[in-house]
Amino acid sequence: MLQPPPAQPGMREDEIDTPALLIDLDAFEHNLDRMAALLRPTGARLRAHAKTHKSPVIAHLQAARGAVGQCVQKVAEAEALAWGGVPDILVTNEVVGDAKLARLLALSRIARVAVCADDPANVARIEAAAAASGQRMAVLVEIDVGMARAGVAPGPDAVALAEQIAGSPHLAFGGLQAYHGAAQHVRTAEGRQEAVGRAVDDTRRTVEQLRQRGLSCAIVGGAGTGTFELEAASGVYNEIQAGSYCFMDADYRRNRDGVSDGFQQALFVLSGVMSAARPGLAVLDAGHKAVAVDSGLPLVWRREDVRYTGASDEHGKLEWGAETSGPRLGEKLRLVPGHCDPTVDRYDWYVGVRGGWVECLWPVAARGGLA
């Protein structure tokens, strides 16, 4: 059920109903500008990942700074973006099932849409769906460059799948999807460089083998907020798929010695103290349903003396030492989520704030897009 917005433009931040999903607009705009500036001299294009923000509004702001399109993981996310006027969308995932493929092909009438594949049988199904719809679709081969998740092996297996795509009457070979997600959260710069170095080698070798078979890659895509600088400098990747950079989160902050240090925390969950009946303990109205904890508990923004120590469905526990004056009943605190993507998916609205005042409200249009 769509929830009513927790604020209206012109309100003070401390008047926002909680819990609420906040964007600090100054930090957010800094992050968009910084990514554009960092990629400009490399020649790599930004295809920002909308699984983070789920918002056509944000996609258009990224496009205004040079992004060539958006990535999504689900057909429902692609639908929300296409209906919101985003013209170029890559599903960086496998789409299996006649109903989903029919929905994806329908979007090709209003946007440029591409999808990934890692299995000959699914390529055949995409071809059949494209033929039935009278559309032509670009398909990228996903290769496994270290995730040990989806993706065909780099090299000959990838080449064979690309040749099947290129030989299909209603498909076009679109390039390679070569994302190393596990490398994003390797904590040291040296560790990330080593992991991405292996991915670059595998991808370069596959691109060359494709070239020898007469197949060129319009897109060689991958990278994320933790490693994009490495892929962009590789001379192999031509599209960067970073998503979290626009918001940041506590888990990315645990990476050390990275370019992500230059991005600012822009996404917060605003939470209110609903109980302060015991010394050294307070309870917030933001628990599991308000903030994702899969990558660790949230941090209390600019209150290092106060720790978020536990979550239940509707409650978040705060604790502090005897030397600290803790939050008061009714006080509102910003929380930094451990993982921004699933936290965003809990909300219908972004509340954009600047200088302590509400400036705008944006719908989280692709919220709950599971299929």
Provide keyphrases for this structure.
371 residues; 11 helices; TIM Barrel; Lyase, Ornithine Decarboxylase, Chain A, domain 1; 2 domains; eight-stranded parallel beta barrel; alpha/beta
Description:
The protein is α/β, with parallel strands linked by helices. The chain has two domains: 13-21 and 263-363, Beta Barrel (Lyase, Ornithine Decarboxylase, Chain A, domain 1); 43-245, Alpha-Beta Barrel (TIM Barrel). 29% of the residues lie in helices and 25% in strands. It is built from eleven helices and 17 strands. It has helices spanning 25-39, 50-53, 56-63, 75-83, 98-107, 120-133, 156-166, 189-212, 228-232, 250-253, 340-344; strands spanning 20-24, 45-49, 69-72, 88-94, 112-117, 137-142, 171-177, 219-222, 239-240, 267-278, 281-284, 299-300, 306-311, 316-320, 332-336, 349-354, 357-363. Strands 1, 10, 11, 12, 13, 14, 15, 16 and 17 form a nine-stranded mixed β-sheet that branches. An eight-stranded parallel beta barrel has the order 2-3-4-5-6-7-8-9, surrounded by five helices. α5 crosses α6. The two termini are 18 Å apart. 49% of the residues are buried. The model has no long low-confidence stretch (mean pLDDT 96).
